[in-house]
Amino acid sequence: MFSFLRQTPKAPKSVTVELDGRPVEVAVKLSKRASSFRLSLPASGPVLTLPERSRWADAEAFLLRHRHWLAARLPRTVRSMRLEAGTEVPLRGVPHLVVGTGVPRGRVEILPLVDLPELRVPGTPEHQPRRLFDWLKAEALADLSERSAFHAQRLGVTVKDIKLRSQSSRWGSCSSTGSINYNWRLILAPPFVLDYVAAHEVAHLVEMNHSDAFWATVTRTLPDMERGRAWLKAHGRQLMAWEPPGNSG
After folding, report:
1. Is the distance from CB of 93 to CB of 193 less than 8 angstroms?
2. CA dist 94 to 58, 84, 110, Å?
3. Mean of the per-residue pLDDT values for the chain?
4. Helices 191-203/128-155 angle, 10° precision
5. Can you give the pTM of this predicted structure?
6. Which stretch of DSSP H or E encloses residue 152?
7. Helices then strands (H, E): number in the chain?
8. Fewer CB near the terminus (10 Å): N or C of the chain?
9. How far is 236 from 78, CA to CA, in rounded Å?
């Protein structure tokens, strides 16, 4: 149940393997700092890290030995999700059915039904995804601005600017000047997850690294940080599957 579709003497940039009957692409990364082979699963997808002078045949054998580890941790199905009518969008972690109203103008509205809340989106079908995306970004910016300000006050720092991005593998980034970029998809996660990412990025204004001092800073402003961190590790790849209209942010 496992095969390499392509084998080369030198390490390729990626290799496709078959896991549980479906092809999975594994990125291959050469590292001067690595002393051994390492298989990891970030939000962007599986990565096989190789020491710079290692043999590709040995790397293939390592991946073969760890195929069950990888298969067990990959979601059964990971496919692109689109913001369109008929789709269930997890607004703040709660599924909402996207419904087109057919009304040419107006705002996106939440209809809080008991069984399945609705996101009612105006406009023609071709314009509804962009309308919903813009609304989700506005909601994300409001939530992230509020939580960033909260953690900045607790840590005694100043957030200069907040922007939203559509990164495919990062939830946020922070510059030493006080500017923070966040992934718009955080509005689709439960609020405690968004809160964790906000605390994480604001903490970088105190410690621009991932040292023990940094994690102590995150914990100081958000004692329950492990809850959000664990959720992202478990569900981050599914969240990244949501695509903005036109694949642009």
Report:
1. yes
2. 45, 17, 12
3. 89
4. 50
5. 0.70
6. helix 128-155
7. 6, 13
8. N
9. 11
